[in-house]
Amino acid sequence: MFTEQQNLAIARTELDTVFFQEFEYDSADPGIATAKTGEIFKPATTEHAQYIEEVFKGVPLFPVIGETQTVPLATPRVANKLTVSVKDFAQGVEISKNLFDDNLHGVWSRTVKDLALKARVSQDQNAFSFINAATTTSLTADGNALVSSHTLINGQTYSNSLGTLVLSETNLNTAILNLRAQPDQANVILGNVPAYLLVPTPLFKVAVQITESALIPAKGDNDINVYRSAYGITVFASPYLNAAAGGSDTAWYLLARNHSITRLVRQGIETSLRSWEYSNNRTYFYQANFREVVYAPDYVGVVGAQ
């Protein structure tokens, strides 16, 4: 005979096995980004419910000095304090003891698989909702939308918004030029190299054609496609950027590797099982939860078009 605790451990092991097989499943869809795509959402961890960050202005360029001249001194400066609150996500299901014991037609296993799937989708929707609001409510530490006009710490202004430019070979070049000439908070042009093109799924086909064709697409003059040969831009798409998911079917974003969009994790996915012995209707209660938030302290490394 198993003890109560042994029965509970066995039940949880079975449920967790099904849950994590689905939660950690990697479909390997070409070009599809998720919340775990580190190129788009840089991973970071915290031990607190709130996280405070300030933006570093940066040092100026190196001046030319004489042989014995005193080395110039740059005073580090931080400003634009940003506080982000970690979000708490949770969901659970009740499974009757008889249903778990019998598992007729695999009902409980499908229920737990669906719970795991919805956990993944919740992570993805939360992450990409930050991108969807890049021109409105997703603010950087200066109080302006991530893709908008920004006042630099040293007083100048700069805009990383491309307005309503549609994704095309010509307009991608406009985005590259903007990113290349983008200044940091000290108004120093960094020469950012475009690395990732992030689009909703309706734009995935045209994005791949523009960036990965050996020659310039839709032209018959055999011109080399510089977006592939010189830049090697990687295309990422997500259905959670689509209009149906609260985004836009025409918005697109070009990122450099030094962008600061961050997925801050307070607690990874955890599961728990309450045994049927502790209920008044002989049901197991299986739940899962995670705590995280997506934010961007600075605009550097990002340009976008709505």
Give the strand order, joined by hyphens, for the main sheet. Answer: 1-10-11-4
Q: Give the CA-based shape.
A: globular
Q: Can you tell me the CATH architecture?
A: Alpha-Beta Complex
Q: What profile does the largest beta sheet have? A: 4 strands, mixed
What is the name of the CATH class? Alpha Beta
Mean pLDDT: 90
Do you know the CATH topology? phage-related protein like fold
Q: Roughly how much helix do the residues carry, as a percent range?
A: 25-40%
- Which structural class is indicated by helix and strand composition? alpha+beta
Per DSSP, the total helix count is 6
Low-confidence stretches: none
Could you give the count of β-strands? 12
- Our Rg estimate from Cα atoms comes to 24 Å
Approximate strand percentage: 25-35%
- The helix/strand order is HEEEEHHEEHEHHEEEEE
* Overall number of domains: 1
Describe the fold and architecture:
The protein has helices spanning 4-23, 97-102, 107-132, 169-180, 204-212, 226-231, and strands spanning 42-45, 50-56, 78-85, 87-96, 149-151, 157-159, 194-200, 234-238, 252-256, 262-274, 283-295, 302-305. By secondary structure, the chain is of the alpha+beta class. The protein has a single domain (4-59, 82-305), classed as Alpha-Beta Complex (phage-related protein like fold), CATH 3.90.1690.
